[in-house]
Amino acid sequence: NCEYPAMETYILTNDSAVETTYTISATGANADWIIINGIKIATTPLIITLGAGESTELVAFISPTECYVEPGTYYVTVNIDRDWEIEVIVINTRSLSLDVSPSDAELGQCEAQEFDAVVKNTGKHNDYVELSVVGIPANWVSLADPEFLLEKGNSRLFSFTVTPDCDAAIKTYNFDLVAAIRNTSYSTRESLSLEIEDLQEINISSGALKACSDSATSATIEIENNGTLADGLKLSLTGLDWASLEENSVALETGQTA
Questions:
Q1: What span, in angstroms and rounded, lies between the C-alpha atoms of 66 and 175?
Q2: Is the separation of the CB atoms in 223 and 233 below 8 Å?
């Protein structure tokens, strides 16, 4: 990478019977990656004169000019008397470790769950870390500092909170906390799960309703909210075309009866 160049020594030998002058240059997309004997040969060719049978060392330093080159295999083309391709393998020197607790949680709608996490820069560079939570709605997540500089070898403790909507579907949600290094393709993630439980409980009770065909009668229906949240309820009757309700809706705090 840009901070840790590779060094390689080559031997240039004049196999001819006469003194020869060599012009050494670099061409192609990665030409500016290489320096030979202290000269960036992409812009200033290196000129060496050797007598018949003489040899000299060419000390090459090769590194990407950009610090965020994707890891992989690249080629640098050097021209002496013809084109020579030098294979350059760029390795990944950026890495993070990530731990989160708890890895799974159970809660009800509207309830908040806090997750504690630690991210460590295990690479060879000081890098900006970008945090994100993917797999659940963004408005459920509260994350105070999603971007920060993390020096190599250092760790950072942080927390984030997940609060499902009050009408979130009752099911298990699988999601990930992702830590990425800015301007690179590198990222690591921890898989988490959140089970939203049905904590709403409504009890309905009523006395027996007796009615005659020629007179109206009434009965009291009692509704109790035994759940953990305040509820707004819509009421309706089915099966009795000749019956009606005085109220079609009711709002109850947790523990309240109407």
A1: 33
A2: yes
- Residues in the chain, overall count: 258
Across 28-69, the runs of DSSP E, i.e. the strands, are: 34-36, 46-50, 55-62
For the chain, what percentages of helix, strand and coil (3-state, to nearest 5) are there?
0, 50, 45
Distance CA 108, CA 226 (A): 14
**CA of residue 26 relative to chain centroid, distance:** 39
Determine the 3-state secondary structure of 31 from DSSP.
helix
The backbone region for 213, taken as left when phi is positive above 0, alpha when psi lies in -120 to 50, beta otherwise, is: alpha
Cβ-in-10-Å burial (0-12, 13-18, 19+) of 178 comes to middle
Q: Which of 83, 90, 91 has the alpha carbon at shortest distance from 31?
A: 83
Spell out the residues 6+ positions from residue 126 whose beta carbon is closer than 8 angstroms to its own: 149, 150, 151, 152
How many CA atoms within 13 Å lie on the side-chain side of 254?
7
Q: What is the pLDDT along the chain (258 residues), one digit of tens a residue?
A: 566 788 999 999 999 999 999 999 999 999 999 999 999 999 999 999 999 999 999 999 998 887 778 888 999 999 998 899 999 988 878 899 999 999 999 988 888 999 999 999 999 889 999 999 999 999 999 999 999 999 999 999 999 999 999 888 999 999 999 999 998 888 999 999 999 987 666 667 666 666 666 666 676 777 766 666 666 667 676 766 666 766 777 776 776 676
